[in-house]
């Protein structure tokens, strides 16, 4: 069964929004603002990733919570490659388009041929490794 969405907290919604709309090409499709059970409030934003899935981010304004640390691996003491986000590039033109977009925006990108797939990687503003992955066999 497919994911409906994956939700992550971000310490900087503006930078996150820029990355996921400009660098990834995703469309913002929904934003909800509501109070939280701990007091304070939160904004929950959803981006269409294509293929019937979404990624969502929480912009938390809850004084009772510690500041958000958004790097899903590094902030847990793990190398960046462990926990990461991998998005499907259905073919080589799509992968090369994503690569060109990242490079044009000045992101450091690395490219790895894993044998069964080819991946390009960059780091999002939260410190999370983001991947476009194209199956090759």
Coarse morphology:
globular
Rg result: 16 Å
How confident is the prediction overall: mean pLDDT?
96
Count every beta strand, where a strand is a DSSP E run of 2 or more residues: 8
Strand content: 35-45%
Low-confidence stretches: none
The description of the largest β-sheet is: 4 strands, mixed
Query: How would you write the strand order of the largest sheet?
Result: 1-4-3-2
H-E string? EHEEEEHEEE
Descriptive account of the structure:
The chain has helices at residues 13-23, 92-104, and strands spanning 5-9, 27-35, 41-50, 53-61, 84-88, 110-113, 117-123, 129-135. With 137 residues, it is an alpha/beta fold. The chain is 18% helix and 41% strand. It has two helices and eight strands. The longest helix has 13 residues, at 92-104. The mean pLDDT is 96.
